[in-house]
Amino acid sequence: MKKTKIVIPARLKSTRLPGKPLKKILGKEMIIRVSDICNKVVQKKDIVIATDNFSIKGICQKQGYPSIMTSKKCKTGTDRVYKAIQGVKTDIIINVQGDEPMISPSDIKKVINAKKKFYNHVVCGYCEISYKDAESNNVPKVVINRNSDLQYISRSLIPGLKNKKDAKKIKYFKQVCIYGFNKKELSKFYNYQGKSKIENMEDIEILRFFDLKIPIKMVRVSSKSISVDTIKDLNRVKKVLKKRL
Prior knowledge:
- The chain is an alpha/beta fold.
- It has helices at residues 30-38, 54-62, 77-84, 105-117, 131-134, 183-190, 197-202, 208-211, 231-244, and strands spanning 4-10, 24-25, 28-29, 47-51, 67-69, 92-96, 122-129, 141-144, 150-154, 172-181, 216-220.
- The protein is 31% helix and 23% strand.
- The mean pLDDT is 94.
């Protein structure tokens, strides 16, 4: 039976929303809210918060979540995950982004099960979105083939249409940041010579796996999760969760 660890990368200095992991949502820090969701899938001992900040580390440890300090120089969250699992005994590493405070436990389980089935593929979540959301540069859109393999991911509106009048008639899908890795995949990712060209252009880290020729299997998950990239996203999450009280 393959052993699974969930790693949550949490960097303090987000470009678009500084101090993001410590932003409170209905009285609870976002990083703790995400960790509590992960705790519905695995035990606390199988969750690792990978951070570059002692305040984040202290808050997580106070709530009983193991945390590991990683360098501020990590290029991406996935690089940070690699550093966090050094010396950790595990077969499967699930990367749940610390800015997904509405992620569903059942969706995390879906990614874990897919990784067990497709062990030599990177696994990633995706869901359908509205045309309005698809127009945003903050939202990475995905194109997937009939075998659920990722064909491309971009901040631009994809798939593109020759007749732009039809753009609102088709379905668009976005990446949901739950990833499944094994140690070999993470090692290749980390030891690549810097960011890949297209990864750097799009600012989407999963594109580095294209250059490494590691296939990516996509898993359809709930469309109810809201990734927090801006203050507008944060307020949107607060509004939705308040309605559920």
